[in-house]
Amino acid sequence: MSKVLILFSLGFVCLGADVMPPEADQRMAREIYKEMIESKSGFTTGTTTDIAEAVAARLKAAGFAAADVFVGGANPRKANVVVRYRGTGARKPLLLLAHIDVVEALRADWTTDPFALIEKDGYFYGRGTMDDKAQAAVWVANLIRYRREGFRPDRDLIVALTADEEGGGPYNGVDWLLKNKRELIEAEYTLNEGGRGELVEGKRVSNDVGLSEKTFANFRLEVRNKGGHSARPVPDNAIYRLAGALYRMSGFAFPFRLNEVTRAYFQAMAKIEKGPLAADLAKVAEGSEEAMRKVGAASPPLNAMMRTTCVATMLEGGHATNALPQLAAANINCRILPEDSVEDVLAALKKVVADDQVVVTISVNEGRSPASPLRPDVLKAIARIGDTMWPGVVTVPMMAVGGSDGRYLRVAGIPTYGVQGFFVDRDDVRAHGRDERMPVRSFYEGQTFLYELVKALSAGADK
User: How far apart, in Å, are the Cα atoms of 286 and each of 19, 258, 270, 376?
Assistant: First the structure.
């Protein structure tokens, strides 16, 4: 892979000096974006059905046949929407995927209303602005634009906006579609989240393409005992035992390990970065553990790319303020390198916990997925368009440190490529966090990038 990882500058797409979409298409994309952000589609408390039905109505109003628009899912509140844009059929369809559920957000935690699209200081604020309603809105807006312009692709284009990516489980939209309506999303390959543009100190440095991702797994640490009256405390306290185990975990780190994709990523980034960091990244690619420690300590995102990570995310315990706790438990979320197994991580956590009263079990194991093949046609198209829009910005293959619905598709034999063209600050990625935001210009430039990319991959321009 490392021999073919960088820049396929073999031609150019004529975009003109302005890489922003036409004003009418900007307005349409923003309107769709706003509707999606302001629809509360939290994984546990919200519904994706309202968004799915609104998108379906918009597409039908734009002239899409009712037979080509599907709304449905595993639960009435967890609907997906799938639309097919008919091409000549010369090639297998291209699937354009995004999820429309979001991580929960509390108004009290945010400086703005998380379920209102707020534009200020050059950013769009709101839950899902980055993960993943920007791409969902752009897919819909661009599909309508293709129809208005009379674009005739040589393959069908399928847009699927799906439920419950953030929580998986029995209502996950991609899993449900594969098991129940696979014919709706059967495709040669997929474009999805999992790769974005990286900004460092305001400068675009790379447009990343996700070829693989870590395994998502949750582990439960649980302590139980008989409890008692709080007026008669005893040393054997379930909360204290759990706290001790968590403290030991806080000082533990899994070993560094590179794979083919991440080694290629660091080789590429070493040629992009300037100053001492460039030399450190080159040493990382060569396998220097000292360089890995240095780079990992300076950058949480790069650290996560080099090792399996586990972190406590939720706590529970006790049943009354005046009683000794009978239960204390914690959720440990792990993002596991493809080379590590969930069973290996379980064994490591038990060793670190080192307390037979703290029971460690696997509560969620979403399983591994294979890496997508490094297709020259896909990477050439991405690099060609990216180099035209942002001269000098390199296209880099990468492993996503978070999970995505690409896992289900890769396991099902549909290669998936994480690519968006939305540039965000590498060290200020607010997805899942407070005050999630997307740079306004990045949103519209990503709209143009994805518009051109899909045309290139479905009109013979990538051959």
Answer: 37, 10, 11, 25
